[in-house]
Amino acid sequence: MSSLTEKDRPIVQLLLNAGTCPRCILRFCCVGSQVLYRHPHKDLMKDLEEFLKTNQGEEDTVCLGVAAPPCKRIRLEDGEEGAADVNHNGAIPQVPSADSGNAATESSSGKVCNVCLGILQEFCEADFVKKVCQKVNSADYQFTSFVFSVSLPPQLSVRERAAWLGVKQEMRNLGLPLAKDDIVQLKEAYKWIIHPQLSEELGVPADGKSLFEVSVVFAHPETDEECHFLATACPDCFKPAKNKQSVFTRMAVIKALEKIKEEDFLKHFPCPPSSPKKLCDALEIQCNNGAVFVAGRYNKYSRNLPQTPWIIDGERKLESSVEELISEHLMAEFKADSFNFSSSGREDVDVRTLGNGRPFAIELVNPRRIRFTAEEMKRLQQAINDSSDKIQVRDLQLVTRSAIGRMKEGEEEKTKTYSALIWTDKAIQREDIAFLDDIKELKLDQKTPLRVLHRRPLAVRCRLIHTMRSEYIDEHHFRLHLKTQAGTYIKEFVHGDFGRTKPNIGSLLNRTADILELDVESVDVDWPPTLAD
Questions:
Q1: Does one domain contain both 332 and 479?
Q2: Is the dihedral of CA 16, 19, 24, 30 positive or negative?
Q3: Which of 348, 350, 437, 514 is catalytic?
Q4: Is the pTM value of this prediction over 0.90?
Q5: 66 φ, ψ (degrees, to nearest 5)
Q6: Quick count: other Cβ atoms within 10 Å of Cβ 118?
Q7: What is the CATH number of the domain that holds 440?
Q8: Are 322 and 307 in contact, with CB atoms under 8 Å apart?
Q9: pLDDT digits (tens, 9 = 90+) for 237-258
Q10: Could you tell me whether strands 501-502 and 440-447 are parallel, antiparallel, or unpaired per DSSP bridges?
């Protein structure tokens, strides 16, 4: 906008009379200059007062034109097609005099805005900005930029519609057209005002792509029930949802406002809306950092350690897990709220993972610290390894979210190498097991094992044993080295799981076989990258 013009006069006059703040008036006059909204509240009120005092028919130049980027708009109502800026005899219609505007200005300046409920008044001031920044600084986050978000009470959408309908009615009475331009969103105007102040106070730029979010949640209990009439008019828009305390969410209210007829709205709500007694409450000022991802490989040397906490019917069976032994150090160093652990497959509690280890990744949620040097990551890895003889970690490094996908890509096409200690009921000689070495690409049909049927769907899975190499120990024991398709149930391949895996070592040897020990010797996933020692 370059300046307020004569056609804006009735909008300014009407909204000032109704108790609307200067910044909301600029929004309804479609002013798109960001800098104008940053002018002090008192100066803006004075400018509007001067504007109403100017002779009708003259362009006001109090609000200086400032170039600004295109703004986001919210469409409330289009003007009538073909409408002109003058009445039938070519003259600008008369609007209320500047004298009546003075009274409105004086009374409005001390009121809570009837549209924004004070958000573009008190919550744009330096004291509130300092309060937000104190909250951010006390939370002790590392960040190089920020994105600011605001949650508004849903009834603000109702009040905005009511104000617009009031403006629309006034313009019709005066024979003036409605501009096709749309009003500036309250959120957008608020960010125009507060972004520079936050940026200066925090010493970092505002960036819409930043992973560090500063958010403010506003509420206005005094007007909470103003949305309720919409539930009667548009019941389909208000359906209970999980994790929602109220059906009157902002999106549900907006949806209802799009559906309700204008005449029905006017029956239930004053246009323009009345002024409230109290300002909005800033219920919460929150900070949140985007997740950080750490990857590596782990070796597991214990036969009494689950990968993840082993809890059955609410009772913990073992005191620790691979996940916990690794994550407790990461949580402490990154100062995160929580974590999510994932890996390339998993081993049973009594299975060791040897060789180059199993790839894993940990998502650290809302970390306070996000920057670590390679040397610091090495020290963190060493701290994990020094804390327990049950596991060891290698190649610990920071990775991106998208990189984690490589750990899961083609998971079933990957290969894994195992070493199994096998017992047989009947005595064996070396020649009895030698033929196993010649078997290549053995196809298995594995029905979901009984031991995991409680957490896995019943299905028959086709798997491959690529190669086998036997190592004779004594008449009842031998070790079998296997290279298999990922996802193969090795224990069931040995003992047959009551015929649910076919063929199996027992059926191949024509005797009962069972597995005594199992080790994972390698997981052939080329991720994460190997780091130099």
A1: no
A2: negative
A3: 348
A4: no
A5: -135, 130
A6: 20
A7: 3.30.70.3190
A8: yes
A9: 888 777 667 888 888 899 999 9
A10: antiparallel
